[in-house]
Amino acid sequence: MTLNSLQDLYLTELKDLYDAETRISKALPKMVEAAKSPDLRQAFESHLEETRGHVDRLEQIFQKMNEAPKGEKCRGIAGILDEAEDMMDKVEDAPPAVNDAALIGAAQRVEHYEIAAYGTVRTYARRLGLEDHAQLLSRTLQEEGAADKKLTRLAESSINEQAKTAR
Fold it and tell me: Is residue 134 part of a domain?
């Protein structure tokens, strides 16, 4: 598809995000299972529920546009999730805090990608005069930022310190 307008770019980026969220919703249960800390496991479970809501919001936007959400592969998130799986394999037998520190790092890479992507599409929606879309995208952007902050708090409150002294 040739992108000839901001509208074309917006639609393509939304489809990319839809694929990303779908992939993330499939990856998060593996991270829940791999997490050793109950708090981290809970954070991943909570974000899985939020991610399902992100998919729903994107579907609402596509419905308003009379567009199908499929059609793009999010290569960026696919690569980040591949790296996360590789990391999970490497730390599978590591001390619990090292495992969890690695999971947090992988999850934050995902969050940072999403924060950038949602910020971009929200800006496009506003420029296109689609304030109802922008509001839905802003809610998701806020949730992604909150998830990132929660992961940082978990890392800084105990997990990284425990990983530092693990053997």
Answer: yes
Tokens describing residue 82:
């591949």
Alpha carbons 122 and 136: distance in angstroms, whole number? 9
pLDDT values of the chain reduced to their tens digit, one per residue, 167 residues: 689 999 999 999 999 999 999 999 999 999 999 999 999 999 999 999 999 999 999 999 999 999 999 989 999 999 999 999 999 999 989 999 999 999 999 999 999 999 999 999 999 999 999 999 999 999 999 999 999 999 999 999 999 999 999 87
Indicate which CATH number applies to the domain containing 137. 1.20.1260.10
Tell me how many domains the chain contains.
Answer: 1
With respect to residue 111, please indicate whether it lies within any of the assigned structural domains.
yes
The pTM of the full predicted model, rounded to 2 decimals, is: 0.94
CA torsion through residues 158, 32, 90, 114, sign: negative
Domain containing 140 equals 6-165
CA distance 44 to 90: 20
Q: Is residue 1 included in any domain, yes or no? A: no
